[in-house]
């Protein structure tokens, strides 16, 4: 029984203690609330206390439940502000006032180090292109930034310690460069619409740790990330839990009792543990209304044995986020991994193709970045292109833009004499910037790929590439860009490059 009480007390420590009326930290000064949809406002108070919420021209009242929790909904508002949010309680002396709130579009930005990489760069050898010029120009009063500090957790947290700031050179310098360029480009298109960016990222982390425990359990792949050599399995309990259990054992021995055996705890605070970063760095935001999410991750999953499972895990993670936010199939935009490393293994390409296949999910978009990678730097400096391509996809999916927002996408493959024909969408004007079409390979049923000569052919309204090789007698498969470092690029008329793909199932 004492063990159960101890475990229960540890869980309760993750919940805010209800006293006077309180809001989550993300309802801070300078916050952005999502436009054109109902917005939930929630917090804590004394059980049974009547809480009043005032925002713009709306006034609402709600009673806290027996646990001291309350929530209410603001009706949809158009883009605008600044406004004031006021929350009062009939048993609380002082009202809560939050100033300079805007109504606009809120985007979650997450992933690993290429999303985390700030505008000022990581170090002198890993800098953002033109970073000094970009930082100096980062004065955008209608762009607001929330930087989530690194915080793994054993259970889903209900609050964060982090708050919103106005985008200035000082605040933007330490913020995600990809997210900043994405938000800046969005606002240039959506004139006058405030943009809120929530940067919650952690370098070197796999996709599994960004899923909820329910989502990870449903996929049944959690053991990959808890049993691997050098990962997090069997790390023991935290010092606090160990101390509590040891004290209990000592008390039992002093009283002449045999200590009750207890299971060894796993360290659930590792950044590689399934759900640890979802719990600490995403769960606090799942009640917050958003427009969508951007994602840059996959480097940590490209090695064996993880790469073959990435498609299932990544697709499952997107569906899990949509389930947790309960805001429908919101836009989820992601980056296909850049060029990096050596061409001796194909885990990098496996992950890229898994990312491409995830486009089968509704309202997803992919920014291809093969051409802005670097063979010896896993953190390429041209984050302007990455942000711009994510913004182009967002404008097409979520803002009704007419311009082409997607890279050429493989649709299907058909056989040709001595070769294969690949069919593409979003491929108008497909051509290399210079020289011949390269980067294609074909294979027979044995899956042994050989370099192929390739050419672009237009068939009616369809853009295709025909690839042939005299060394493959009965071609069955075609692929492109199947290397860690890709050097042959094809672009559509919008200047967006083709990404890695294979026709293999």
From TrEMBL:
Keywords: Hydrolase, Signal
Domain Sialate O-acetylesterase: 104-213, 263-395
GO molecular function: sialate O-acetylesterase activity
Any Pfam family hit: SASA
InterPro entries with a match to the protein in the record: SASA (IPR005181), SGNH_hydro_sf (IPR036514), SIAE (IPR039329)
Entry-linked SUPFAM superfamilies: SGNH hydrolase (SSF52266)
GO biological process: carbohydrate metabolic process
Signal peptide (from-to): 1-19
Protein name: Sialate O-acetylesterase
Source species of the chain: Terriglobus roseus
